[in-house]
Amino acid sequence: MVRRPSQPPVGLHSEKEAPLKSRANRPRDPGQPQLPFDPMPPRIEPCLAQLASKPPKGSEWAFELKWDGYRLAVHVEPTQIRILTRGGHDWTKRFSGIEIAAKQLGVATMILDGEAVVLDGQGRADFGALKAALGGRGGKRNAEAVVFYAFDLLYFDGHDLRWMELSERRHLLESILPAAQGGPIRLSEEGDADGDSFFQIACEHGLEGIIAKHRRRPYRSGRLGDWLKIKCVRSESFAIVGYEPSTDGVSIASLLLAAIKGDELVYVGSVGTGFKEKVARDLKQALDGLAIHKPSVKYPRKQAVVVRPELVAEVEFRAWTKDGKLCHTSFKGIRVPQDNPTVYRIES
């Protein structure tokens, strides 16, 4: 049997005495240092989406449209705005509309992750129009009409948010960029449907596809499976290893394409549609400057001009043949080095 102490423990009062009271708060010393802030990263390597054949299932996944444009990070800093490409190049001067809009958000410090696009008449992202707005390959034009769709918030008000779950980062982002807000900076909204239904709707409207994101994951740089991309029409980046000239000799008839397999490039077919006349002429001129005598891959085309594999083409296609060639291809554009394009890798 436990005995009660005859006297209350030190620091407590008996029932006959006054009730317990907490110590009065002392005013804060103005000379005391503020809580530490996280230093703003000069650049954050982006989180990349893995290709998936179908949308994942489960309430832990959120779904957004896949925007067909340039991946950008908008840095709102105390004294300036910086707009960085996926490869870390500063393109602030080329996106003055986004720069002005970022200043007007009224936020002291912030890093937005998103995609810059140009929309067509039906509200779909048009990669070709974006290229034209920026002046094409090597262009320096200022794309004032570009819209930036923000889909993540990585740094805010002096604090690094990458350790937080996506759902928490998303909540903060939506408080800064309300849904259905117009202007050069807009919120990339989540679909109010399950993955299969949302994917079907995206394809029926002629969109490129959707992105699935795990709500409970932090922001991790690289292609780790936290984000998945599901495409209606497949579109990938391939190295240009040669071209077939047109019959008039001033343009191109098709491009020879290669992917990475193991430690080397392998020929995966060609693309001969999707070129506008001026683009085809300009591309021939650029490729002629890269011409070489010894091909970098084995290919069956006898009349081709072989080139150093320095340019990367974005190509739409429907499927792969049994012998590893692309089916029903269409040229979309040349990926610029500043966008840090990744040549498609064939898994062994």
Q: Can you walk me through this structure?
A:
With 348 residues, this protein is of the alpha+beta class. The protein is built from five helices and 19 strands. The protein is globular, with a radius of gyration of 27 Å. Mean pLDDT is 87; it is low at 1-6 and 8-15.
Supply database-style keywords.
Dna Ligase, domain 1, OB fold (Dihydrolipoamide Acetyltransferase, E2P), D-amino Acid Aminotransferase, Chain A, domain 1, 14% helix, 348 residues, alpha+beta, 19 strands, disordered N terminus, 6-stranded mixed β-sheet, globular, 7-stranded mixed β-sheet
Short description:
By secondary structure, this protein is α+β, with helices and mostly antiparallel strands. The chain has helices at residues 96-103, 127-133, 166-176, 195-204, 277-288, and strands spanning 50-51, 61-65, 70-76, 81-85, 110-117, 147-156, 159-160, 185-187, 209-214, 227-231, 234-245, 252-261, 264-271, 305-306, 312-317, 319-320, 326-327, 330-335, 345-346.
Architecture blueprint of SSEs:
Blueprint (H helix, E strand, L loop, with lengths): L49 E2 L9 E5 L4 E7 L4 E5 L10 H8 L6 E8 L9 H7 L13 E10 L2 E2 L5 H11 L8 E3 L7 H10 L4 E6 L12 E5 L2 E12 L6 E10 L2 E8 L5 H12 L16 E2 L5 E6 L1 E2 L5 E2 L2 E6 L9 E2 L2
Parallel strand pairs: 1-10, 6-8, 12-19
Antiparallel strand pairs: 2-9, 3-4, 3-5, 5-6, 6-7, 9-10, 11-12, 11-14, 11-15, 12-13, 15-18, 16-17
